[in-house]
Automatic annotation (TrEMBL):
Domain spans labelled DALR anticodon binding: 461-578
Keyword Ligase in record: yes
Reaction catalysed by this enzyme: tRNA(Arg) + L-arginine + ATP = L-arginyl-tRNA(Arg) + AMP + diphosphate
EC number: 6.1.1.19
Domain of life: Bacteria
Gene designation: argS
Keyword Protein biosynthesis part of the UniProt annotation: yes
Keywords, ordered alphabetically: Aminoacyl-tRNA synthetase, ATP-binding, Cytoplasm, Ligase, Nucleotide-binding, Protein biosynthesis
GO molecular function, one term: ATP binding
Name listed for the protein in its UniProt record: Arginine--tRNA ligase
Natural source organism: Microbulbifer pacificus
Principal subcellular localisation of the protein: cytoplasm
Subcellular location: Cytoplasm
Domain Arginyl tRNA synthetase N-terminal: 1-87
Family: Belongs to the class-I aminoacyl-tRNA synthetase family.
Length: 578
């Protein structure tokens, strides 16, 4: 149910019937001020300019051609040609009743599902996941959940770094370590293991030569070397899986499609680009020159496809990935949840892929860029000693801090209850603090603000859900037992009804534009609107008629279910007790 789209369709038809060209948009949007209707159709001004007419007179023609519309109670022409739309009270009540009866809250699956490939998380398997992997992982997961909820086929692609010259160094060190202990023990702490290998590579005589020999063996398909490499990969992925389980994201081992899986296609791809004249030899390297991305002086953008010594680069692998996703996975949309600092690299890869015909015109390549998580000092988030923050340690600290807050607020709960609530609140707080920010912006990581029970935070929304659910416990009634019609007799009830019915259009917007913060803002506004309703419209107080009580409890039920559904799409759990 997307009210905005329904109204847009109604007014589009009225505009065409009024003789306005079909390319003119009704420009329907929610009203920004109380008293100006629930929605506004603002397209008359632009249409009047196009057809050379008076905008207010054109607005009147549009209104005259609306006909009888059950969802619209009245319309008014305001100012130079705005059309204020007041939704029908009866229609709103019926719509809410229908949403209550539907497990999906009347959010219908799309009629034309697409195949969406989401590239996100992609840790380097030579190191443990750090805070730099947080944003890509949770933004990508939220988008995957939402697109699947809408009925699209979502293929997760965890493009893990599991290849390259560094693995020669790591395999040589692992081979030595396994003489005295098994691989699991040796790789228990990937950061320590990596540092040990790097020190040996830089300082130990003969080790660097052994590391290079391992690279040659690995690339040559040596069976023993590949077996050792696979052991390293398996254990490394297990480390990542522990993080995914702790974060509550939907990535599985089967979603891993690592760099190494494109190896066989890389020489084929380079030859194809050269045969097409897109890439040429230049100073021993294979290079694509892109006049489409020329600088101010007219110099083409340069993309190295193969290094002078024959090695391949990220650009080569990413082009192979585009070919695979477009032609094998048959993607309609390919979304890359990747740091904004990779914008130029991805734009170059997308341009080469388009030129080479690796992707059809109707298939989209979308960079869902995100900014950096900053510390209070305004610099990228680091430890106090300046080191990289391990993601596992950050999540553990979030749970510890949240558990302490819960224990202080609810000392009567058992330690087990406090720990479980602390886990859900702590992880939810970290995820929501990120998702609620416009993803393209940098943001400052702050424990106090993200764990606050006031403002636009996960704890506030989780607590709002808990408070709504507690009403039913106090009333001694299950939502399924409620009867009677939903009444919208007060301004507060009507405001809550309209906010509830906007859920579908918000989901459509996030799916289209890939900005999860829009959903966060909606959920916060819904909780705030509910608080206004609860204060203005008593639910369980003495003197409230049974009819009003049943109606308002139904609104409470819809709020709780919408909050739970919306937070669930963000990958955040709710609790019956906090």
């Amino acid at each position: 149910m997307n009210i905005r789209q329904q109204l847009n369709d109604i007014f589009q038809t009225a505009m065409i019937d009024a003789g306005i060209p079909a390319e003119c948009s009704p420009a329907v949007a929610p009203a920004k001020k109380a008293g100006f209707g629930d929605y506004q159709a603002n397209g008359a001004m632009a249409a009047a300019k196009k057809v050379g007419s008076n905008p207010r007179e054109l607005a009147a023609k549009i209104v005259d051609n609306l006909g009888d519309q059950p969802m619209i109670e009245k319309v008014e022409i305001a100012g130079p040609g705005f059309i204020n739309i007041h939704l029908s009270q009866a229609w709103l009540a019926e719509t809410l009743a229908s949403a209550r009866a539907d497990e999906r809250l009347n959010i219908a699956a799309v009629t034309e599902p697409q195949t969406a490939v989401l590239d996100y998380s992609h840790p380097n398997l030579a190191k443990e996941m750090h805070v730099g992997h947080l944003r890509t992982t949770i933004i990508g997961d939220a988008l995957a959940r939402l697109l699947e909820f809408q009925g699209h086929k979502v293929i997760r692609q965890n493009h893990m770094g599991d290849w390259g010259t560094q693995f020669g160094m790591l395999l040589a060190h692992l081979a030595d370590q396994m003489e005295n202990q098994d691989a699991e023990v040796a790789l228990k702490d990937l950061e320590v293991f990596y540092r040990e290998a790097k020190v040996r590579f830089d300082e130990e005589e003969g080790f660097a030569d052994r590391a290079r020999e391992y690279v040659v063996k690995l690339q040559g398909g040596d069976a023993d070397c590949l077996k050792l490499w696979q052991r390293f990969i398996d254990i490394s992925i297990s480390h990542a899986e522990e993080i995914y389980a702790k974060l509550g994201v939907t990535l599985q081992r089967g979603d891993v499609y690592a760099e190494s899986q494109y190896n066989d296609d890389l020489p084929v791809l380079v030859k194809d680009l050269m045969d097409r004249g897109i890439a040429v030899e230049d100073q021993g390297a294979i290079v694509a020159f892109l006049p489409e991305m020329a600088d101010k002086e007219g110099n083409p953008s340069v993309v190295i496809i193969q290094k002078k010594g024959g090695g391949y680069l990220y650009a080569t692998t990413d082009l192979a990935a585009i070919r695979y996703r477009a032609n094998v996975l048959k993607a309609d949309r390919i979304l890359y949840v990747v740091d904004a600092r990779q914008s130029l690299h991805l734009q170059q890869a997308f341009t080469v892929a388009r030129k080479a015909g690796y992707i059809a015109d109707e298939q989209t390549l979308e960079h869902c860029a995100f900014g950096t998580m900053m510390g209070d000092d305004g610099k990228p988030f680091k430890t106090r000693t300046g080191g990289t923050v391990k993601l596992a340690e950050l999540l553990d600290e979030a749970v510890e801090r949240a558990t302490a807050l819960v224990a202080a607020k609810n000392p009567d709960l058992s330690a087990e209850q406090q720990a479980e609530i602390g886990r859900v609140v702590g992880i939810g707080a970290v995820k929501y603090a990120d998702l609620s920010k416009t993803r393209t912006n940098d943001y400052v990581f702050n424990w106090e603000s993200m764990l606050a029970f006031e403002g636009n935070t996960a704890p506030y929304l989780q607590y709002a859900y808990t408070r709504v659910r507690s009403i039913f416990r106090r009333a001694g009634v299950e939502p399924s037992a409620l009867t009677g019609e939903i009444k919208l007799a007060t301004d507060a009830e009507r405001a809550l009804a309209i906010k509830l019915t906007q859920f579908g259009e918000v989901l459509d917007q996030v799916a289209k534009d890939t900005f999860p913060h829009v959903l966060c803002t909606y959920l916060y506004e819904l909780a705030s609107t509910y608080m206004g309703f609860y204060e203005a419209c008593p639910v369980l107080k003495e003197g409230v008629s049974e009819e009003d009580k049943q109606s308002r409890l139904q609104l409470c039920d819809l709020v709780a279910r919408t909050l739970a559904t919306g937070l669930g799409l963000l990958g955040i759990n709710v609790l019956e007790q906090m």
